[in-house]
Amino acid sequence: MGTTDRHIHLIAICGTGMAALAGMLKAAGYRVTGSDANVYPPMSTMLERQGISYRVGFRPENIEPDTDLVVIGNAVSKTNPEVLAVLERGLPYRSFPQALAEFFLDGRVPIVVAGTHGKTTTAALAAWVLDCAGLSPGFLIGGWVKNFDANSRPGTGRYFVVEGDEYDTAFFDKGPKFLHYRPHAAILTSIEFDHGDIYNSLDEIKAAFRTFVRLIPSDGMLLAAEGDPNVQEVIREASCDTSTYGLNSSGRWHAEEIRFDTKGVSFRVMKDRTDLGRFRSPLVGKHNLNNAVAVIGLAFSLGLSADAIQKGIESFHGVKRRQEVAGEVNGIIVMDDFAHHPTAIRETLAGLRLQYPGRRIWAIFEPRSATSRRNVFQREFPSSFEPADRIVIAGLFAPEKIPAEQRLDPKRVAEDLRVLGKEAAFIPTADEIVRTVSPQLKSGDLVCVMSSGGFDGIHGKLLKALAGPPLRQAG
Description:
Blueprint: E1 7-11, H1 16-27, E2 31-36, H2 43-49, E3 53-56, E4 69-72, H3 81-89, E5 93-95, H4 96-105, E6 109-114, H5 119-132, E7 138-145, E8 150-153, E9 159-164, E10 168-170, E11 173-176, E12 185-188, H6 202-214, E13 221-225, H7 229-234, E14 241-246, E15 253-261, E16 264-271, E17 274-281, H8 286-301, H9 306-314, E18 324-329, E19 332-337, H10 342-355, E20 360-365, H11 381-384, E21 390-393, H12 410-419, E22 423-426, H13 430-437, E23 445-450, H14 458-467
Parallel strand pairs: 1-2, 1-4, 2-3, 4-5, 6-9, 6-12, 7-9, 12-13, 13-14, 14-15, 19-23, 20-21, 20-23, 21-22
Antiparallel strand pairs: 7-8, 10-11, 15-16, 16-17, 18-19
Helix pairs in contact: 1-2, 1-4, 5-8, 5-9, 13-14
């Protein structure tokens, strides 16, 4: 049976990774269909653009008689009507990571970027640098890469870059996704507690990463963040060549002569005591400088020239929803960012402070991810907003999905911020935030909206309010 004769159906096709996989399968010549309960842009429009048929809602009849294989996303349970139909009919099925490995990593050299923070940007930058060098890598990233206007591509070269997620695989496989990706080379950016809905402790997370680094073969390589004690503990399990990277000379690959300005950062890269040249990146913040150093170390290790690497580093436009400017009205910048972990919030705001030193920075945060809605970071959240001048904490997204005794108290986060001397408020909804904040904004302000979801379209609402006639402040 040729690829054009095979029919693959994806349950929960509109997930970021699942939609990307669907597009690659379609490009490879398979007949692809899918279904999902929640169908919305940008994934729905991406599927439509690629001619992939999908149905809204889960029903047994969505599994057509000629279906050869079913890919089951981790967002669905064993009681899903389509999953039940697959099991009753005895159809072959795979998880998303299994399918990616089977169809696109076999015979390739997988480069896996893993870690609690920074993996999306680092993986995207690695793919772009390899592409600029003419190596045509395949890639699958958990965010929309602006340079490619895509989050995946099969590629024709030997390398395939994967963002290695530590989240669970499927209802029938509760292990991390990254255990399926056959890493030959890897970057490990950081290890902290996260995903409080599936991990009970930092020790459980470290155990997962230990298993991951043990997968790298002895002839492979691992670049690991210098200065992270959890990373340093985990990489002892590696049998491959291991190098550290960072902003201090204790890292084998490190940056020196670092200069931040309004256009990004310039820096010199050293390997031990060898000067590898000066580089410039338009990305914001020290955390992104770390990401760039990791990719530069990887690229040199793969044999790329300094000129080829610099071409990719300086022309990288980033990933959507990572310090992305949603618009500017009357000198007020409204920015969209994905940060939802205390460390990511702190690093994002510190980076904005470096790049926009003269602006008053507002941080508007919606606790939306499974972990940020829980009280595991109740004490950590207030200090993470320290680089901001003014802070607004919104209400929890879908609080009913979190047991009452486990919920974050966002009002208390705002109260604790005021105890720390910050101007902070708890304002439950996006509409209330827009009504309250927009009259207080003035030219030169930067508003960074942080959420792992759409936040009720707050970015567009805020820009519209700023462009319209002055609003009366609520209350």
